[in-house]
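# nightly structure sweep
# worker-07 picked up a monomer target from the shared queue
# config: single-sequence mode, recycle default, output format = structure tokens
# input follows
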Amino acid sequence: MLRAKYLFIKDYLIKIWDNMKKNNNEISNYYLLKGIWKALKKRRKRQFFICSFLMIISGISETLSLASIIPLISFLISPEEAWKNPIIKPIFSNLGFTELKQPILSIVLIFVSTVILAGFLRIFTLWIISKYIAALGSDFSSESFRRNLYQPFSVHIGKNSSEIVALNTVEINRLSNIFTYFMKMLLSSTYVLFIVSAIFIYDLKLGLTSFLAFIFIYFLLTFFSRFYLRRNSKFISHYLQKNIKFLNEGLGSIREIILNNNYKFYLTNFFKIDQPMRSKMAENDFISNGPKALVESIAFIYLAFLSLYIVITQSNSTLLLTKIAVIAVACQKILPQLQQIYASWSRLTGNSKSVEKILSTIKQPIPNNEISFKKKLKFNNDIFLKNIFFKYKDSSDYVLKAINFRIRKSEKIGIIGETGTGKSTLVDVLVGLLKPSKGEILVDECIISIRKNINAWRSMIAYIPQNIYLSDTTIIENVACGLRKEEIDVKKVIESCKKAQIHEFIINLPLGYETIIGEMGINLSGGQRQRLGIARALFNIYDKNKKILILDEATSALDYKVEDLIIQEIYKMNENLTLIMISHRYNTLINCDRIIEIKNGSIISEKKPK
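# output follows
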């Protein structure tokens, strides 16, 4: 009967174990911490060892403060017996104390001094660690953003922006928290090591029975909770990204939500994402903090039985009370540290998915852009698109097929076609944002798609996309995008705005060029946003001496009169400027030298406008 019960329990535990292993194949904390260590700068590694040295000094001071309580308790309870102690008496005799009451004040002062020293070192160590953690968080945040920013355009279009926003905000903050947990875990481990060592020296048997039990309890909690923490970490990280994605979509659709009264739909779906995520966070928090109450209750019960045992077995009342006091103080110091170690470890495990994502991000290769930006590319004759084919990743169909044409310097070229025919993709390939699947783009017989030439080519182009990004700042800073305010040539900004036919509108605003236009230019109309985008491109031509201007449906929100005025100004501004205009409206391209028509990704005609 007993054997059958044993086998049943054994099989049940094996099933639980197999299930936990099946659902938890993630990288261990050791390898995550190893990955973080490899990613640290040399300077941060040196600072880590300085922090570790401070932890050791702080741990020694905590041990001394505990040790100093032994003579204090002994002298306060029974000065006569303490004075007769074979260890204490020679020390005080050598210090010149001859009477029983003389050392008491010195002992109190020593105790107070060690407590103050330990407290000061602990506060100082925590302050240094906090500064170190802030520096680490900043390093990883900057490096993550840098790695993401430098990725090729093909990588960016394959990612959802909410994924990058979540990574560089919430996930980075979670990584900073992991640094905090790890350093606190190290600090607490140092304290526990020194204090337990001191207790073992004082009374080995008492130390073993007192503290190994508590360490074993936390070990079991750590062993069995890690699987649930890792599972929850993966869930939280996934739902966090979904949460930010849904917030962006909801706020981006605010007009439609208000007009269609879709509040309930968005709120219900947000709750379905947010509530499970918060629930898993609460589970992790309970696993981290829940054992504290249990272990404290066990500690109080243990102290009660330990006191009873010492009273029964010890005849020396001074030694009896001293041992009880030492164990009580040691428990008061060690138990919070054991809880801190466990809580830090569990929170580290509970945030492990964030570490995996960030380590994966900062391992992304980035091109050496400095070399190709310094290189100058000559453009004296023509641009030749030679047998260009292009298809997107994971797609078997070509978006562009057998594209062949030349653009002579200073020529004004129009590209026309219906929506979805590949016009914008052709522009992305032309400017070097996308690499051709087949074929080459040559500028004066120089292949621009190779790494050493690509950024030199891009530096020659002023580009106005269909969807213009405007930041939540002033008009002048939006036009001179990428420059500090003190570096901006205001005259060039004004001249660019005049040619873009928006200067009169700006000067009639209360703050003129210092007007803040709101996120994505929300305070402007569609036509005004497009004209600001055109002004930005024209400013780049003035300020950075761009040779080529590309307008990708950049005037689609303008009426024909304003559009014609802008185009005429562009034609007049620089005779050597090469202009490429993409549009689905024939009238927009009427003044071009040639019009190239695209259909289904191929050129079907190339002719002069009528």
